[in-house]
Every structure is written in C-alpha cells, then in structure tokens.
Amino acid sequence: MGQEELILAAAAAYFSGKGYYVNTNFTVPGTQIALDLVAVLPKMRELKPRLKMGFAPTGILVHLLDGDWIPFERIVDKTGFDTNFVGEALTEAAQNDWVEIDIHKEAARCRIKNYKIPARECVLAFLGTQNFTEKLDTARALEGCYHKAFFIFPYSLDDRTTDQIALMGGGIIKYHQTHGVFQELMPAQTFDIESIKRYALIVEKVLYDNVWVMTEEII
Amino acid sequence: MSDTRFISFSGKGGSGKTTTMSLFLSAILRRNIFKEILVIDADPDANLSETLNIHVETTLGEVLDKRKKELEGPAAAGTKLRFLIWDSIGHGNGFDFLVMGHTTGTGCYCSVNSVLNEVLVETVTMYDLVLIDFDAGIEHFSRRSGNPSDTLIITCDPSRLSFDTAKRIKRLIEELALPYERQFLMGCRFDQNQKALFNGLAEEVGLEVLGMIAYDAEIATKNLLGEDLLSLTPDNPSIKTVQGILKQLVPDSETI
Question: Average pLDDT, whole number, for chain A?
C-alpha cells in the first residue's frame, strides 16, 4: 500500500469512526468528477424506508425533484438513458412508492412522492499531497453539493497553501501517521446545499454502498 | 463535524423524570433548536411513549430476544440485528423514539449485546440531540452502560427518599467515573414555599440546582387521563419554567 492509499484508508476509518458512511475514490454519479473521500451522515428517518422500499433510483428521480408532473419523454431526454431502461426504472420506482405515474392527454407523466434526502451532512476530504490545485478546483466546482470540505496532509503547510484552502472555505486536517491522529488544524466553512440534485446523487450512492456492506454482518 | 448532544434524566421512580423529560422535549420542539432528535426510554417501567403519544411496536429487549433465538437455530438466518434495531426506532412528530425494554430469555447475550452497543453508538451519531429517560439510574450506571452524556438531570419530588436516591446516583457517577460533564438537580411538584428547603437538600446532595417545577394540576389531569404532554399549551406554567431552564442549558449560541 502506497503512502497515499494508506492515508486515505486511515481517513476513511477516521470518518467512519465518527458515524459517517464513507466512500473512497468516489466518482460523482453521471460525471467524471473524482473525489478522494466522501463522508455522509445519514438521517435515520429517511434511511429506514430505503431498506424496505429499496433505494431510490436517484439518477432518474433527481430530474423530478424540481416540481410537479413531468412528461415521461422529458425525463428520458434529461437522463440521456434508453427509453426502456427509464420506463422500467420508473415502473419499479412507482411500485416502491417513490413516484406516481399518470396518463395525461394520452402520454405518461411522473411525479415524485415523499422523496427526502436521506442525509444530515456531506463532507468531502481530499488528500492534499497529490494534484492539490486540481482538487482545490474540484472542491470549488462542487460548492453547493456538500457541507464541508477538508484537505488532509501528513505534514505542516506553508502559509500560501493554507491561504488557498482558507479562501475556498476548506478545512485542514493534519495526519500524524506515527500516532494515528487526524488533527483538525483549521475548521471548514459550512456551505448551504444549493445543488439538491447532485447532492442527492452523491449521498444516495454513498449510503447505498455502505448499507450493502452492512448486510454482510453475521449477528 | 457534528457532535451529538446528550441530556439524560434520572431519579427515583415516581420523582417526575418522565414528566420533566416530556416537558423538555416539548420546549425543545417549540424552540426548534435541534433538527434530529432521538428520545430513548431506558426505564424498565417504560411509560414515556404515553406521555409523548407514541405507539411503540417493539422494544430493543424484544429485538435482542428474537435475534438471539434465531442465532441459536440451525442456520443464522433472519434479519441482521442492526436492521432490527433500526426497525425498533419509532418516529414521532419531530423526533424519533426508542424503548430499551428488557430481555426475557436465558443464556448468554454477549454477542447480541456487543452488536447492540456498537450499533447504538453508531446510531446516535445520526442525531443532534439524544434525550434519555433512565430508571433510578443505578441499574444502568452500575453496568457502566450509560452513554457518555454531557448533561444529567436528576429529578427529585418532595420526599426525602428521592434526595437519598440522588445522592446514590451522584456517588455512583463519581465511583465509576461516568462521563456526565454537567450534573443538575431538578425539583418536581414542589410548592414555591418549599424552595429554601429544596435548595438546602440539593446542597446536601452536592448538585447544582437547575430549577423547580411546581405542582401543575393540568399535567396531573393529563397524566391521570393518559393524555400526552406535548399537547400542553405554551401558556402552561410548567412549559414556561422549562423553556427558561432550557435557555440556560442550551443558550442560543449553542443551537444549530
């Protein structure tokens, strides 16, 4: 295991130990955007129904988040997926009570039902030791899709780097490998969620993956 | 990163802890200072659900019994304990609710208890605030299974025995080095004329006084009728008292 992988694994354990559901080396669904680590704090009230109903097909449902009835054809256009696939996904989503389907003027239309985002908090963490500038840009570009972003370094930072992170509202965590300690040197700013769709996509994926892992428990 | 805040209520049986906790929850919901709230009834004589008008489908004790029985079978089939625990969490209007209950089976519960502790620790992190109604406290304290809590409120009614219990709870906390950072005494059903006496007894216990709730005929009637205490109107004097106490306990600067 390389140094970067080791820090990332330790950081995942650090966030996981705080109750977050964590994915490392995460690609934001529907994009090529790569994130080192995403940590999501779930909401019990919203997580539980997903265990019974199945997780929401977020890639499709996000296009219904905005409003009222959306014509089926428009949903297909927005997702960019195959018509049959979207049709099957929406039919299953209707069976699972995520959406309602209606025939209006001889065309199918859909409306989201009872959908609430199942997370209290979404934190991004980046290893600052590689591609720092690129990751800083990613954090800036995704602002509004997460609450906090941290940059993790196994060494102390110069003023310039610290200022760059501070300027984008990020926090700094120093990893002391010898002691296994993650030290929050600079707190992160808390951002409001403005891009509900992308936020929903990120948190649903992380929660789904983590709940899947939990099904391996024996007791 | 978010920290879960704990407020636990303990005291002698019948000293008013369930009523006090219900009043606190009511005040917290009215002030809208916490988004995610979990209420835990850890009293073996669980009746908090009635004062909060919550229907409880299953308790953690029942869940443990069920899972233990399954695991003793030929194949460890069935729903995993984590998901059974989650299932036992009920949902009220603005808060979630969990009743600990108790196990009834015989034999070793070590494995299921171990998972229970693990899952509970993880689960509470999903909440901003956890309110816990303990029994007299001693059972949980002596097993060292109390959650780390930043505030413990011990309730006392106008009886010498409830102050004796408070003393025992305080001693146990010290002996076991339990992590209750703030500990208070709270009077229930006292007359204003008994304030000096209450303060004197509180001093003997060695706990800071958080406040005193006077006898409240409306609450007594609701308790007699089995009605919930969340329906008390804002002008109820006990609600007003608790709202004032809550402001001291959780100042605006500490809310989210």
Answer: 94
